[in-house]
Design brief:
Length: 156
């Protein structure tokens, strides 16, 4: 199982870089103002709350909370707070990101790290679609989840 999770993260990271790197040099930003949002979504394990607070045009803090609703046993939540590097917007409108940070889970009250990758797609002035893959690195376990959601944009 560890090989599968590591492989998925590696593939996700490689795809993100492969899409973003060649296009980021050519991409023209539609909006020079950094994108901030707050939204809801679903993960492979349950519900998710996602947000993005831009530090500048390239770096963001992306707090995310997920719950384990779809699995048997204890129900618990996981909170991630990664800092991400936001690649330039591609010609398709995607804005890929990759990052790392801290995480905490209510399962055995463990603290650890998180690796994340994904992409934002600004639907219009008010809405953004968000997709991400997260790997929580906790003492006793590895918490893998994929999240898809919709968020409302706001200015700081």
């Amino acid at each position: 199982m560890k090989f599968t999770i590591a492989s998925l993260i590696s593939i996700g990271f490689a795809c993100t870089v492969a899409i973003a790197a060649p296009m980021s040099a050519l991409a023209q930003e539609k909006n020079s103002q950094p994108l901030n949002y707050f939204g809801v979504g679903a993960s492979n394990r349950g519900a998710a709350i996602e947000s993005k607070l831009s530090i500048n045009n390239r770096f963001s803090v992306r707090p995310t909370a997920t719950t384990k609703l779809f699995e048997e046993g204890d129900r618990h939540a996981t909170i991630y707070v990664p800092v991400t590097y936001d690649f330039g917007q591609t010609s398709s409108g995607l804005r890929p990101f990759v990052g790392a940070g801290a995480g905490i889970t209510t399962e055995n009250r463990q603290f650890g790290g998180v690796l994340t990758t994904g992409a934002d797609y600004r639907i219009n002035k008010r809405l953004t679609a968000v997709g991400s893959v997260n790997l929580g690195l906790f003492e006793d376990n590895r918490d893998f989840n994929a999240v898809l959601g919709i968020a409302t944009n706001f200015n700081r």
